[in-house]
Design brief:
This protein is globular. It has a two-stranded parallel sheet. It has 3 helices and 2 strands, in the order αβαβα. Helix 1 (about 10-20) crosses helix 2 (about 45-55). Helices cover about 40% and strands about 5% of the residues. It is mostly helical.
Length: about 90
């Protein structure tokens, strides 16, 4: 299975992920991210939860959106996301 991982501080990634799903280019969306060094000063809710809400609002079914436990560092997030994608 091929997938991409992005470290971002913009909600555009959620919108783009939803677009790809809705174009049937992805079977599901996995969002990971807590409040990191940058986002903890910008947001109150973990980025993964915000991104999932955006995708669902755009029409992605809730059962096709997975939210990983919030982790604050991308290098630490990579392993659980890889494990989730392999299922």
């Amino acid at each position: 299975m091929r997938f991409w991982s992005f470290a971002v501080t913009t909600k555009a990634v959620a919108r783009r992920g939803a677009e790809l799903f809705l174009q049937e280019l992805a079977p599901l969306l996995i969002f990971a991210g807590g409040l990191g060094a940058i986002t903890r000063h910008l947001w109150r809710e973990p980025e993964a939860h915000q991104f999932a809400a955006i995708a669902v609002a755009m029409g992605v079914p809730e059962d096709r959106v997975l939210v990983e436990k919030p982790i604050d560092e991308t290098r630490v997030e990579k392993r659980p996301v890889h494990e989730t994608a392999a299922r």
